[in-house]
Amino acid sequence: MEKQMKLTEEMFLPAVDNFKEAEKISRPSISYWSDAWRRLKTNKLAMFGLIMIILLIVMAIIGPYLNGYTYYEQDFSKKNLKPNAEHWFGTDTAGRDLFTRAWYGARISLFIGFMAALIDFLAGVLYGGISAIRGGRMDNVMMRIAEVLYAIPYLLVVILVMIAMKRGIWPLIIAMTITGWIPMARLVRGQVLQLKELEYVHAATAMGAKMGWVLRKHMIPNTLGPILVNLTLTVPSAIFAEATLSFLGLGVQAPQASWGTLVSDSLGSIHVGNFYQLLIPATLISLTMLAFNVFGDGLRDALDPRLRD
Amino acid sequence: MLKYTLKRFMWAVLTLWVIITITFIIMKVIPGNPFAKEGPMPAAVYNNLQKHYNLDKPNIVQYGMYLKSLAQLDFGRSMKSQSLTVNDYIKQGFPVSLHLGLQALVISVTFGLILGVIAALNRNRWPDYLSMVVAIIGISVPSFILATFLIQYFGVYLKVLPVATWKSWSHTILPSISLAMLPLAYIARLMRSSMLEVMNQDYILTAKAKGLAQSSIIIKHAIRNAILPVVTVLGIMTANLVTGSFIIEHIFGIPGMGEMFVKSIFNRDYTVILGSTVFYSAILIFLIFIVDIAYTWIDPRIKVTGESS
Questions:
Q1: What is the pTM of this model?
Q2: What number is the average pLDDT over the span B258-281?
Q3: Best B136, B140, B192, B243 residue to mutate vs chain A (most A CBs within 10 Å)
């Protein structure tokens, strides 16, 4: 035993009451959102989706101005050009620059997707929230109405409404949101109903918290996660519906372009070897759908406390 | 059980009635005249046409007459065809759509389940990644784009399958695959997560502890329980298959209900639009009703209280 314990004077002093020291939080506290972000960052697929979404939005904003052409300018001497240095994505059957048109289409498709998601969100939160908070008979009636409307096939509603209105971007958005808000309303109602019965909400009400406080401090932060996930998945389904309608000829009209119309336009000339005219919008649609879907999935995993490890 | 079935049935009838009413109203407010394409016509002819289709009567009377004829399963006369009634159109188109839809359903359920189970049993190994890649592609690539690529590759490039129309069985392959990909992907994802959840249950552990063979654990205990969520979505899934077939039938030139619907939109053939919407909705509501009833029968844990999930 070479090592001997060194006995020092202070070891024999009475213990200091360092109770406060022990309770001190030595690391920064992590909020729900920073915790979710930390988990999201480790999900490579979701981060890929996020980066793609940001890239798409940036390109939708600046893309149409990058090479000096406009989406409507026709030049029949330069039609059906393959992608080259002058026209980066080539030109279409009317000699319009496809690079500009593709990003202009991105702008319209993304705008429709985000607007539809936003309106679904507002209508759904309002309807579902009121339904759940009021409860009882009102809740029953409101949810039955929603259920009946939801039984009508989505695409059928959208097509029927599009027949009744003029073609254009706003009619498309209205057609998509006319029953599109229902899943959001049902989600919000379910969440709020669950939260309403939790102890901390009861405690807050018992201590005299007003409705506004309970909503702001308890309901909204706790329902935001699932709502956000639902929103991320609404955007691609709206883009998908827009592309389908435009493909059928019920969407935006020329010379405006959306990805759906670009695909539809390309069908006339792919058999003569202009396959790139299909490939470009098809890739963009698929990439967008992919990006939003994987990001939404990743977000769901990151926000779900049950998956915490 | 009988009470629940009756209650569900009443809801189905009510839903259908709402759909009929909404569609009827939309058809009435649509601007434009179905006889406009015929060009200017003498007032007497116009009046006779109006009379022929009962358009001279007040809207509420027309609505009553329409409901009455629907109750007798008479969908009315086409406004564009001299000889065909809407019933004739449905008789021609529906068997084709049914064939296409069923074939797509079989493909998506079979392969979706297989992919989902394989993915779950090989979690985070290559079969899992492979089947999830298939699922992501299925969700990201819109059916009309997939259909166009399939036509290009198998029809135009390899020349092994016909590019369009509906004559022999080989004509049905490409449309069925294009239609099946999206539901296939959903089923695979759903089955994977449901299977993963079930495999962690105590009764699986018990079965293992009893020394049951892996295969019989998977078949008898895991799959039978994991398949329940898939059954729930089958109703909606079939709805998607039927409505999704608009665009597939349009691309492939298949003479089904969907193509008929799209054509009637462009012809402004209001009675056909109305009739096919009602018919579609009736089929879908009936399917969802069947699935609801089947679900309580398959899963005895579900309380039959009439409370919707």
A1: 0.78
A2: 81
A3: B140
